[in-house]
């Protein structure tokens, strides 16, 4: 997005990016609903953004920028179809099939059109797609994340993720997967994929994978808004409630997670009076609902862990035995190395750094953690607390090489300086 020498281009470019990031999902969903082809929708949406970068610096940002983008994208799609009759004929077949799912909602991107996006969410989460491809495609198309951001969220190389996205779009096209919300008989199979996608969007917002900011609040808030829509539509689904609770309980800490200059503030050092206590209360109420009526799901258990943290006056008075017990339950439901990592940190708080370090070292050969910087960062912290400073320094350097955001790197550099300081003999890590 080169602004050249124009003084007004950078603000216009920022406006385009802000609108596109905010409205990307609705814009794409409306275009797919209208034309029945995901590739075409993505291409003309990008062309509309390029047109905005040309026109907005001269004409000003329109009063209804999202509607401007939609109108421009539609015109470009129609022009393309007029030039390519074979392509138009294929899309006509797809459109007939899409129309069987019901009439389209009015196309007004300045209004609230949750159903349009839900159709696209469920299309991307169709069981005909591989599980890893569903999440990748939805993050790319509905959240507007870049391919490297999606790759970082799933701990895989960017090239691998690009292949997944292409493969998923090809499968949708070849299998003629309909653009619709599934019926009641399909919903139990399809909902977990949608929830995974929304949670991945929130995770990227809560802890950005790269860039100058620790948090991307726009993404986190978009994920919460989408979860509120899902809960309105699916109020009896307890894992929908659990995921919304988890997001609220974590997002409630947003104001305290960074300092005045955007620097990273760890949970132990956060000013808890800056937490959003109204959001915490809402989240706690949802946790109770998510845990009632049968065995708890993974999101409900994670929400319960977040609630224990939010209810404590400080880290020292946190109920660590309860946190470990909840992680024990979660590890059965989701036997992943990231859950095991978080459990090890909780054990360190309950039983001491040596106990936690032993658990972390047992995970050392898991390839899924090799590019995950919280793993060496957690080891470094425990080694620091144990007074094993040369090993702590090596682990901090490893984490520093993997960290994606400027605040994370700055925090790790400060910790590395502490353990490398001459005469440093602090065995407590305080």
From TrEMBL:
<keyword id="KW-0804">Transcription</keyword>
<feature type="domain" description="RNA polymerase sigma factor 70 region 4 type 2">
    <location>
        <begin position="124"/>
        <end position="172"/>
    </location>
</feature>
<dbReference type="InterPro" id="IPR013324">
    <property type="entry name" value="RNA_pol_sigma_r3/r4-like"/>
</dbReference>
<feature type="domain" description="DUF6596">
    <location>
        <begin position="190"/>
        <end position="290"/>
    </location>
</feature>
<dbReference type="InterPro" id="IPR036388">
    <property type="entry name" value="WH-like_DNA-bd_sf"/>
</dbReference>
<dbReference type="InterPro" id="IPR013249">
    <property type="entry name" value="RNA_pol_sigma70_r4_t2"/>
</dbReference>
<dbReference type="InterPro" id="IPR007627">
    <property type="entry name" value="RNA_pol_sigma70_r2"/>
</dbReference>
<dbReference type="Pfam" id="PF04542">
    <property type="entry name" value="Sigma70_r2"/>
</dbReference>
<protein>
    <submittedName>
        <fullName>RNA polymerase sigma factor</fullName>
    </submittedName>
</protein>
<dbReference type="Pfam" id="PF20239">
    <property type="entry name" value="DUF6596"/>
</dbReference>
<dbReference type="Pfam" id="PF08281">
    <property type="entry name" value="Sigma70_r4_2"/>
</dbReference>
<keyword id="KW-0805">Transcription regulation</keyword>
<feature type="domain" description="RNA polymerase sigma-70 region 2">
    <location>
        <begin position="22"/>
        <end position="85"/>
    </location>
</feature>
<dbReference type="InterPro" id="IPR046531">
    <property type="entry name" value="DUF6596"/>
</dbReference>
<dbReference type="InterPro" id="IPR013325">
    <property type="entry name" value="RNA_pol_sigma_r2"/>
</dbReference>
<comment type="similarity">
    <text>Belongs to the sigma-70 factor family. ECF subfamily.</text>
</comment>
<keyword id="KW-0731">Sigma factor</keyword>
